Amino acid sequence: MLSRFFTGGRRSFDSLSEQEILALAISSEEDDARIYLAYADGLREEFPASAKIFEEMAAEEHTHRDRLIDMHKRRFGDTIPLIRRDHVLGYYERRPDWLVRPLGVEKARAQAAEMERGAERFYHAAAQRTSDADTRKLLGELALIESGHEKTAQALEAKHAPEGVQQEEAATERRQFILTYVQPGLAGLMDGSVSTLAPIFATAFATQNTWTTFLVGLSASVGAGISMGFTEAAHDDGKLSGRGSPIKRGFASGIMTALGGLGHALPYLIPHFWTATSLAAIIVVVELFVITWIQNRYMETPWMRAALQVILGGTLVFLAGVLIGNA
């Protein structure tokens, strides 16, 4: 009873019979084929060449399953025990395809490579547990096939996704990342960092009360984040523009807006006014530098032009806040 409690009701691999090992191999091949087909489905619209690669990998997994089923029929009959990888203690796991979304090309390929390595380890271990010569031979062959899947994947890539196609897919993936995350996030960061400068520093110099200034900065940052998030999510569903999920864009914009304002609001938790203000001013400089770097890195804006735009705009808003606060 205690061992079952600590293992979550799962069996150890060493306790499996040869029939159960074959049943586990069959269900694992079926699961892997389903995952590859899900990857193909997730990639088909934007990366059709890579989708074909995963379709062929799924077909190969079905071939492995059929060979294992034939072996099970010869040795144990038509009734295959229902045993899956999550029933076995310490067995390699598979992440459901919906947990690795959004499904980028490189992420899917890396996940597939890890799947094949896990399958190879399983077949090596299973072969050592089998006394029947034919079954041992089959499991050993499947281990070799799994170990050679990297070369198989490279051959499929050469067939369906040669270098030019892969470069085009990589460019498409990068463009989608920029449209869905970077662009709305950058807009939010600029809005949160720059638009909150005036109210925060105006309040700071008008009251010289750090707690009041923090509350104003907190409310301005959170309010701006909520507003920007809903605005981004509502004004474009992404279907015609190709900018991706409105929910993802809304979260990217809203979170970065709030962070942009909170960056120079949080120093006012320090009770000493000039210490808090000096730290806030330093953080503003860092924020403006980060915005400039993102514009140059992802939006391909020339460094000097980006710096001039961001620093000039931020400085003007900062000075406006200081002047208003000292009026």
Overall description:
- The chain has 12 helices and 2 strands; from the N terminus they run αβααβααααααααα.
- With 327 residues, the chain is mainly α.
- The chain has 2 domains: 160 residues, Ferritin, CATH 1.20.1260.10; 159 residues, no CATH class.
- Strands 1-2 form a two-stranded parallel sheet.
- Helix 8 runs parallel beside helix 12.
- The chain is elongated and about 90 Å long.
- The N terminus is likely disordered.
Architecture blueprint of SSEs:
Blueprint: H1 2-6, E1 11-12, H2 18-43, H3 48-76, E2 88-89, H4 105-128, H5 133-147, H6 149-160, H7 163-195, H8 197-207, H9 210-235, H10 246-263, H11 273-298, H12 303-325
Parallel strand pairs: 1-2
Helix pairs in contact: 2-3, 2-4, 3-5, 3-6, 4-5, 7-9, 7-10, 7-11, 7-12, 8-9, 8-12, 9-10, 11-12
User: How does the helix and strand content classify structurally?
Assistant: mainly alpha
As residue ranges, the low-confidence spans are 1-7
Number of domains: 2
Q: The biggest beta sheet, please?
A: 2 strands, parallel
